[in-house]
Amino acid sequence: MPHSQNPAPVEGWWRSAVIYQVYIRSFTDGNGDGVGDLAGLRERLPYLAELGVDALWLNPWYPSPMADGGYDVADYRDIDPAFGTLAEAHAMIEEAHHLGLRIVIDIVPNHTSDQHPWFRQAVADESGSAARERYLFRDGRGEGGELPPNNWRSVFGGPAWSRITAPDGTPGQWYLHLFAPEQPDLNWESPEVRAEFESILRFWFDRGVDGIRIDVAHALVKAPGLPDLGRWDMELIGSAANADHPHWDRDGVHEIFRGWRAIADSYAEPRVFVAEAWTGAPERLARYVRPDELHTAFNFDYLTAPWLADHLRRAIDTSLAALNSVQAPATWVLSNHDVARHVSRYGRPQPAQPERALADLGSDQPFDLELGTRRARAAALLTLALPGGAYLYQGEELGLWEVEDLPEELLQDPIWRRSGHTDRGRDGCRVPLPWSGNNPPFGYSPPDGQAHPWLPQPAAWRNLTVQIQGGDEQSMLQLYRKALHIRRSHPALGDGALTWDSETDDEVLSFTREPTLRCVVNLSPHPVALPDHHRVILSSAPLDIGKLPSDTAVWLTW
Predict the structure, then answer these.
(1) Is 255 annotated as catalytic?
(2) What is the C-alpha separation between 380 and 350, in angstroms, rounded?
(3) Contact at 8 Å (CB) between 318 and 285?
(4) What are the residues facing 107 on neighbouring strands?
(5) Given 182, 233, 276, 293, which residue is catalytic?
(6) DSSP-derived pairing of the beta strands 535-539 and 552-557
(7) Which of 316, 380, 320, 317 is nearest to 346 (CA)?
(8) Whether the Cβ atoms of residue 242 and residue 305 lie closer than 8 Å to each other
(9) How many of the other CB atoms lie within 10 Å of CB of 448?
(10) What's the start-to-end Cα distance of the chain, in Å?
(11) Is the preceding peptide bond at 441 cis, omega within 30 degrees of 0?
(12) How far apart are CA 308 and CA 318, in angstroms?
């Protein structure tokens, strides 16, 4: 019997939305200083509206020393001067709304910048002060406190603790940073911290922001006493190996998010949250999107699945089952600012285990750009046909690949330094976009710009500019435009259910969305027969008569 996933009977624009991720530094440079900004984004809003997305998610735009690309926030109520001003942000929100685009911004609640006034005061004050209670300061172990308080490790490499120097010049306490030393973790047991972030939410909601993406939502609460990691958790840094991990995915986070949901629901047009939560299982992720908590959460099981039919089917089924159990929609994503672009992931031999980072690709693995692009086109139609919402990372609509040969002296990701120069980090997926022209900066900066882009663009991207692809009906950009406009108008697409079609090849994904839409994806190395009496709506590659070629997807109707 065909297997059906039941839809959740709850309404809301976010249940079906396609949200476009804007990494501001790399989107468009409006003032010519080599760094993307709000002026550049405002200039390109019509492009995004024409593309057919429903909303934009902006990576952090707050004042920041940029130790981690803006995820080290020094002031949560202002805009970094490199990006613009608070007035420009307000104008951008109004212009986006006028074009029918909603705005989702990033918030970073697990940690601040070490340049945040709170942390600077904490370092200046003595042990036990109210300022230090906002963070996780602890005495060191060993006779002179020379050892870290526990064995926790930073996601970016090295220990998760750094020691400060006391005002009198002697070695002081240690502070926790699950990421870079410039990103001290906040203490979410502090009522002052909780009240501050509730105030920050209201600050941005009052200014017209439609939603907020929560960075590392699974990390806020730590176990009492900060116990050492066990062996299995030491080997799995990014997420929890069990349900009682001392700093990932602890049950206490849910009380915080229930309070945040009440704030979002208090507005005449309720605001929306999306969680970045790396959990050990879909059932754990579903806990974040229960009816009284957050609205959606990124689906990392789908993102990390290799281009293999059984892996993708399993990720889809387990995600839908877990999320349907709490009446939450799935959100599907192929790439973002933290993972290697999927053209480069799919263009290599597919592993049996999940992959996400450039380091996971393997420098010894051959990269087939044509194959990666073909699979990425098929993956786009698969993703946009699945029930729920979707996130697109800027440049995926152009078919951009991971830039793997950036000069070492230009790498800015703290992973590069913290790993001892063994992991090149995430800069390769953050290279500025190509818009027009035959030479860098490809319209990213104005013609009279005084600086080079903050990361160099490959010369080969001249064939992938928006200008070039806009005039080519077979381009990746045109495929995305067509798919997004069909998705917006077709009653079968968006939130709802799917029914897997029976009696298909094991290497073929085929499902039906009612009314009258069928998605078929051929992941096998050989062509497969298309079903009889169907008409093609859209295909990711040219079709043979009655056949679906390898690594090709098609939307059909009847």
Answers:
(1) no
(2) 18
(3) no
(4) 214
(5) 276
(6) antiparallel
(7) 380
(8) no
(9) 6
(10) 21
(11) yes
(12) 16
Look at residues 22, 38, 36 and name the one whose alpha carbon lies nearest to residue 457. Answer: 36
Residues contacting 520, CB < 8 A, separation 6+: 501, 504, 508, 509, 510, 530, 531, 548, 553, 554, 556
Q: What letter represents residue 344's amino acid?
A: S
Centre a 10 Å sphere on the Cβ of residue 302 and count the other Cβ atoms it contains: 23
Tell me which amino acid residue 246 is: P
Q: Which two tokens stand for residue 205?
A: 């909601």
Q: Is the separation of the CB atoms in 89 and 76 below 8 Å?
A: no
DSSP state of 38: H
Three-class SS of residue 373? Answer: helix
DSSP per-residue letters across 267-293: SSS--EEEE----SSHHHHHGGGSTTS
SS3 content of the chain, % helix, strand, coil (to 5): 30, 15, 55
Q: Are 44 and 37 in contact (CB under 8 A)?
A: no
Q: pLDDT tens track of the chain, all 558 residues?
A: 333 343 333 479 999 999 999 999 999 999 999 999 999 999 999 999 999 999 999 999 999 999 999 999 999 999 999 999 999 999 999 999 999 999 999 999 999 999 999 999 999 999 999 999 999 999 999 999 999 999 999 998 889 999 999 888 899 999 999 999 999 999 999 999 999 999 999 999 999 999 999 999 999 999 999 999 986 555 455 555 567 899 999 999 999 999 999 999 999 999 999 999 988 889 999 999 999 999 999 988 999 999 999 999 999 999 999 999 999 999 999 999 999 999 999 999 988 666 555 556 655 678 999 999 999 999 999 999 999 999 999 999 999 999 999 999 999 988 888 888 888 989 999 999 999 999 999 999 998 878 899 999 999 999 999 999 999 999 999 999 999 999 999 999 999 999 999 878 899 999 999 999 999 999 999 999 999 999 999 999 999 888 999 999 999 999
Q: How many CB atoms lie within 10 A of CB 168?
A: 7
- C-beta of residue 89 within 8 angstroms of C-beta of residue 38: yes
CB 290 within 8 A of CB 322: no
Q: What is d(CA 110, CA 177) in angstroms, rounded to the nearest whole number?
A: 9
Give me the residues paired with residue 163 across strands: 174
CB atoms within 10 A of CB 133: 17
Separation of alpha carbons 441 and 464, rounded Å = 13
Q: Active site includes 408?
A: no
| C-beta separation of 201 from 260 below 8 A | yes
- Supply φ then ψ for residue 512, to 5 degrees: -115, 140
Which tokens is 377 given? 């086109």
pTM of the model: 0.94
Helix axes 476-489, 38-51, angle to 10 degrees: 60
* Type of residue found at 205: F
Q: Catalytic residue, from 80, 182, 215, 397: name it.
A: 215
**Alpha-carbon dihedral 396, 210, 217, 292, rounded to 10 degrees:** -130
Q: Which two tokens stand for residue 135?
A: 């963070």
Cis peptide bond prior to 515, omega within 30° of 0: yes
